[in-house]
């Protein structure tokens, strides 16, 4: 009897989680959709009548196309060089090429304001359309690691057989690259570029700082400057349409090209010894990336900190670091627990239900942060108003969500749940399922099996996922800035505040704290764990 009660209890937990998680992720988007249907929208009508809306849509599309092309070029070529050529200090170079993931794009944008003045050729290149080209440069050189990591992993595991077959037919290196490697890698390049584009669409600080009038910028203006949720929702629909078109293109690309097989035993890549001229090209290319994306910005920030010690001492760095750690650590714990429960559910269901549950549960990461934050704020404002009127008589005198950090935790959950869920589900599916069946045969419930068997076996994956979540959330500005309660400061919001007031040198210190935390974790992942995956 006790076993039956325990199984019913576990079943209840799994049913509740399986129902609530997709609902929580979809509700903010539904709220935006309902708001967008409202007819009254003065700010939106102004944008429409003055042709500003069309201009912003064109600017957004231009931005993501340029970022996609440049980040694909930088990331894939770097991955190709490191995979196929014998290069000295390979491991060090690999780490240095990944480090830009630890530098938030808004930090890079603020830092490069000073750097552009010291490097005439960069300023000359970007001068023709400095606002757009400056933003493209920042996004591309600090988001290319998405392409680099995915491409390097693919090239090292799935290309060997094709290369060896082509070499037996007398293929030259350049010909192999153009006719074999590049076409085979196209789905991987498109998929990884998509994540760089999602990050670009999610950011508002860089386009705001460089004056690029994209849809994100106008959503920000409609929401914060005009308090017009309806106009902001209508503009958000355009970004969501762009997002769904990109997802469709990526899915079509994946369907058309399927080259790898789980049954193939992948042999190690046989690397080429480059000629002197080729070696020169490789080192110049990779060295330029490392200097522009890592050495220059960090050096500039260190100089700013040293030169402005007196001002920096006034920063309450302990409080803002504690606040950052509080929301990131608590969110990481919540997300991992729920992701483990949902992954357990997904393993035991089949067919259309499994596909629907996975698809809905992972959509949050793809939605731009500004759009997601808007939907969450509108949704929770309504919930808070309902709770306030319902429980006012029993002493409830404040908003439970929108006046506390709960709203940030909610935003982090919706945005980053996909990161934990997809990685843990992937690790879960590779486990020996006979162990799970044996545990249940011995009378353990699914929940007990998850705690006693699954979690210990997936401990390395869980640690890796926790680190990835921490890095993403520590860098996140849009959700924290848009949803934070009054006077709640974090490292990212302080960087934005000081940079917005033209105090870029003061913003350097909290920027370095973010970079230091993220860099240490990236070094740990690169050195000790190879289970790092993009969602």
UniProtKB/TrEMBL annotation:
Transmembrane segments: 12-32, 52-85, 92-110, 130-149, 188-210, 230-249, 280-306, 326-349, 356-380, 400-421, 462-483, 503-525
Gene3D superfamilies: MetI-like (1.10.3720.10)
GO terms under biological process: transmembrane transport
Matching SUPFAM superfamilies: MetI-like (SSF161098)
Residues of the ABC transmembrane type-1 domain: 57-250, 321-525
Entry-linked InterPro entries: MetI-like, MetI-like_sf
A cellular-component GO term for this protein: plasma membrane
One Pfam family recorded for the sequence: BPD_transp_1
Subcellular location: Cell inner membrane; Cell membrane
Keywords: Cell inner membrane, Cell membrane, Membrane, Transmembrane, Transmembrane helix, Transport
Membrane topology qualifier: Multi-pass membrane protein
CDD domains registered for this protein in UniProt: TM_PBP2
PANTHER family per record: FE(3+)-TRANSPORT SYSTEM PERMEASE PROTEIN FBPB 2, INNER MEMBRANE ABC TRANSPORTER PERMEASE PROTEIN YDCV
Family named by the database record: Belongs to the binding-protein-dependent transport system permease family.
Protein's name according to its UniProt entry: Iron ABC transporter permease
């Amino acid at each position: 009897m006790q076993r039956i009660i325990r199984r019913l209890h576990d079943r209840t937990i799994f049913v509740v989680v399986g129902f609530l998680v997709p609902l929580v992720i979809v509700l903010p988007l539904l709220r935006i959709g309902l708001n967008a249907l409202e007819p009254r929208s003065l700010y939106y009508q102004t944008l429409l009548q003055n042709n500003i809306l069309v201009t912003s849509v064109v600017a957004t599309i231009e931005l993501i196309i340029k970022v996609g092309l440049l980040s694909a070029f930088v990331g894939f070529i770097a991955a190709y060089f490191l995979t196929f050529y014998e290069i000295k200090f390979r491991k060090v170079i690999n780490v240095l090429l990944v480090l830009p993931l630890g530098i938030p794009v808004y930090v890079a944008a603020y830092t490069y304001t000073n750097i552009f003045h010291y490097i005439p050729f960069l300023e000359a290149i970007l001068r023709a359309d400095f606002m757009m080209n400056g933003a493209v440069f920042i996004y591309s050189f600090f988001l290319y690691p998405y392409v680099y990591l995915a491409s390097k992993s693919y090239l090292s595991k799935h290309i060997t057989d094709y290369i060896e077959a082509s070499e037996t037919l007398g293929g030259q290196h350049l010909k192999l690259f153009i006719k074999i490697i590049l076409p085979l890698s196209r789905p991987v390049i498109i998929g990884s570029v998509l994540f760089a584009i999602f990050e670009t669409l999610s950011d508002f600080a860089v386009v705001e700082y460089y004056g690029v009038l994209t849809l994100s910028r106008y959503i920000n203006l409609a929401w914060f400057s005009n308090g017009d949720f309806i106009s902001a929702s209508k503009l958000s629909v355009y970004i969501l349409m762009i997002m769904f078109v990109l997802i469709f293109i990526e899915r079509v690309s994946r369907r058309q090209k399927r080259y790898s097989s789980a049954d193939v035993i992948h042999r190690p890549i046989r690397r080429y010894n480059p000629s002197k001229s080729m070696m020169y090209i490789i080192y110049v290319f990779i060295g330029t990336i490392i200097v522009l994306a890592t050495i220059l910005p960090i050096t500039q920030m260190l100089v700013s900190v040293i030169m402005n010690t007196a001002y920096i001492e006034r920063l309450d760095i302990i409080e803002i670091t504690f606040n950052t750690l509080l929301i990131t650590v608590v969110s990481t714990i919540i997300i991992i627990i729920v992701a483990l429960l949902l992954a357990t559910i997904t393993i035991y269901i089949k067919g259309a239900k499994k596909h629907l549950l996975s698809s809905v549960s992972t959509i949050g990461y793809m939605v731009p942060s500004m759009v997601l934050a808007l939907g969450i704020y509108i949704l929770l404002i309504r919930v808070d108003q309902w709770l306030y009127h319902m429980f006012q008589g029993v002493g409830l005198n404040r908003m439970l969500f929108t006046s506390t950090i709960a709203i940030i935790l909610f935003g982090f959950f919706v945005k980053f749940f996909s990161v934990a869920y997809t990685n843990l589900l992937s690790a879960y599916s590779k486990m020996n399922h006979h162990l799970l069946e044996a545990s249940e045969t011995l009378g353990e419930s699914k929940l007990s099996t998850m705690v006693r068997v699954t979690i210990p076996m997936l401990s390395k994956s869980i640690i890796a996922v926790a680190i990835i979540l921490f890095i993403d959330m520590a860098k996140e500005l849009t959700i924290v800035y848009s949803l934070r309660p009054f006077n709640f400061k974090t490292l990212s919001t302080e960087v934005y505040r000081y940079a917005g007031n033209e105090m870029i040198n003061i913003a350097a210190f909290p920027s370095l704290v973010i970079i230091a935390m993220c860099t240490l974790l990236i070094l740990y992942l690169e050195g000790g764990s190879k289970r790092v995956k993009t969602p």
